[in-house]
Amino acid sequence: MKPIIYDYSLEQLQDWMKENGEPAFRGGQLFDWLYVKRVSSFEDMTNLPKGLREKLDHSFQFVTLNEITRLESKDGTVKFLFGLHDNHAIETVIMRHNYGNSICVTTQVGCRIGCTFCASTLGGLKRNLTSGEIVAQVVKAQQMLDATGERVSSIVIMGSGEPFENYDATMAFLRIMIHEKGLNIGQRHITVSTSGIVPSMYKFTEENTQINLAISIHAPNDKLRSKLMPVNRRFPFEDVIEACRHYIAKTGRRITFEYALIGGVNDRPEHAQELAEVLQGMLCHVNLIPVNYVPERDYVRTPRDDIFEFQRILEKNKINATIRREQGHDIAAACGQLRAKHMETK
Predict the structure, then answer these.
(1) Helix (H) or strand (E) holding 71
(2) What angle (nearest 5°) sits at the alpha carbon of residue 113, between those of residues 108 and 118?
(3) Where does S-adenosyl-L-methionine bind (predicted)?
(4) Which residues are catalytic?
(5) CB–CB of 49/55 below 8 Å?
(6) 118 marked as binding residue
(7) CATH number for the 5-59 domain, one of 1.10.150.530, 3.50.50.60, 3.30.1360.120, 3.60.20.20?
(8) Engineered SS bond to 14: which of 24, 142, 155, 262, CB 3.0-4.6 Å?
(9) How far is residue 107's CA from residue 303's CA, in Å, rounded to a whole number?
(10) Quick check: 205 pLDDT over 60?
């Protein structure tokens, strides 16, 4: 299988040119065709010599993301199910907000973290995506938006999989996204979400970026979190919180805690009070997420009034908290739902 062109950074493309007897500036022209003009074949790169285009075509391939399904919600959300070269499938979501278009990307085929309320873990982990396969999701979304003169303005790495278990590919993807000669997405408009892979959290702290960090916690204590998130047995809640405190102290940046509210499980007033005590004094924000119904799981959604009460208790304790706005509810836009349905059909 030929290397994927989107796997290469600008510097790597320049090095490839020099190694193949071409001037380094051709790497910059190629990068421009990929991310500014966004063509999907080397033949379309008309300011490159024909011989070089043939050499590139012989040496590299574009990522093949075959569109299996595209669902469009009445709120403007678009969900893609893409087929990969090895017959696996991944999901990518475009969410429209009044401040711009956000894309939610996937970093793995499936997931091994095992959160008991999530459809992404059904069937386990199949493989990591390459950085180019993650990049291609954004390029595909941007190509769709090009038709209406819109652009991807923000990225959330919150699709299927655990990005910090595919750390190197995730970071390579991020460097391409923020490059000023490429898509040039502002670092503060990108959020990477992890379930709490502690060694990678410390590694990310040292990256010296302005990219936002979000942590899925979903419980205020070790016992309940282990029940909901088996990964907590590897990286206990206390260690995750300590890594968060280190990140805040080192970077001076606010951290977001994601908390999926599950009816009768983790959504009682005492849970909110306990969470407030754990997070006291931290530069943080809590994003409350009404859990999505997954047929294979047995959880129910927290009643609306109880969601507001949970938020009220946090804010009374001076913990900033918001309730995530639901999008794409009518098209099964939550992580893994569309892929799970596709797997079942296959």
Answers:
(1) strand 66-72
(2) 85
(3) 161-162, 193, 216-218, 292
(4) 91, 335
(5) no
(6) yes
(7) 1.10.150.530
(8) 24
(9) 32
(10) yes
